[in-house]
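Worked example

This section walks through a single chain of length 82. The input is the sequence exactly as stored; nothing has been trimmed or padded.
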Amino acid sequence: MAYAVAISGAAAREAADLPAEARVALSAVLRELAEDPWTGQPYDPRWSPEFRTVAFGDGGPITYIVSQRRKLVVVEQVIGSP
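Given that input, the structure is written out below as tokens.
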């Protein structure tokens, strides 16, 4: 079952500052997460597994939270390429 994807205000502002090709890569990753949010890696092994991270294109990672109960992925941070 597909998940809804929500982007926090801070993450949306970070994404808006990305170059065009990085935004395209980010969109592709968000579509993948809507289908299977567990494909990313745990953000920190000491934290709950719902806190995840995944890289997009040549850009940096995004951090997100998976709510299994609500079938929702919430993107909290988008980091552009260094």
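What to look for: The first strand starts at residue 4 and ends at 7.
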